[in-house]
Amino acid sequence: MTHTLRLAIGSVFVGLVVLALKTLAWGLTGSLALMSDALESLVNVATALAVIVALRVAQRPADANHPYGHHKAEFLSAVLEGVLIVIAAMVILREAYHGLMDPRALDMPLTGMIITGLASVLNGVWATILIRHGRAQRSPALVADGRHLMTDVISSAGVLIGIALAVLTGWLWLDPAMAALVAVNILWSGWHVIKGSVGGLMDEAVPDDQLDTIRRVIAEAASDDAALEAHDLRTRHAGAVTFIEFHLVVPGDTTVEDAHTLCDRIEAALMAALPGARVTIHVEPEHKAKHSGIVVLS
């Protein structure tokens, strides 16, 4: 079992504990704001399960039907997470509307706030772990899960502030109002999760900093040979894998063996700089040079 998959399984257990705590807080207080918080945690558990399935699919080796592998399964998981977030937000907004029309006093608010605070601390610690390890292992599913949990922590803090104000001021409408604000925050989070995942599904290029690294590595790896330039650089990412393609221009009298040796060195350098990279190099003779290539090798 990979480290990434262990983290995904851990998310399910953490999510269940947090869900139990927040559901208890909601049951004790009858707060719509705490109900919205608990419902978001229910989404967390569902999406954590989806992440496990996606990671297991993404780790399958390439086959005849999927020659580029199954890495994009992680993006599908993140899209599902975004959709579930939107559905949860719609349910919360509906309950918040009815609560604003008929506000009610809260039962045992202090106890509910303490329980929710403990759940939020647990969520915050786990979200930090997921984001850090997700970035290190280049797993969009783990990063998306971690970011959503961090959003949950922020919305929980807002909920606690709203409940405290409702208790201190007697303004009962603050409870459903905070539930509505949580829903809006959840919608914003869901939009960003979906946007990032769709970019991966649409073969979006790697970020500019990674693109600069790729250019630099190609230039340095080929600087001691007779390569003239590299152009038509194209990149895309799928889960933990970065696909890199470009044309490499060499003198026309370069032997096949020398060109192959050069390509092997460039490929090894790129894979060292970007673990999991898949590199495709098309070698061309010097009359194919464009003199305006993305990378000019010295």
Q: What's the layout of helices and strands?
A:
Elements (H helix, E strand, L loop, with lengths): L2 H27 L2 H27 L14 H29 L7 H28 L3 H30 L4 H28 L6 H14 L7 E10 L2 E10 L5 H18 L4 E8 L9 E2 L2
Parallel strand pairs: 2-3
Antiparallel strand pairs: 1-2, 1-4
Helix pairs in contact: 1-2, 1-4, 2-3, 2-5, 2-6, 3-5, 3-6, 4-5, 5-6, 7-8
Account of the protein in words:
- The protein has 298 residues and is α+β, with helices and mostly antiparallel strands.
- The protein has two domains: 3-201, Alpha-lytic protease prodomain-like (Up-down Bundle); 208-296, Alpha-Beta Plaits (2-Layer Sandwich), CATH 3.30.70.1350.
- 67% of the residues lie in helices and 10% in strands.
- It has eight helices and four strands, in the order αααααααββαββ.
- It has a four-stranded mixed sheet with strand order 3-2-1-4, with helices on one face.
- A hairpin with a 2-residue loop joins strand 1 and strand 2.
- Helix 3 runs antiparallel to helix 6.
- It starts with a helix and ends with a strand.
- The mean pLDDT is 81.
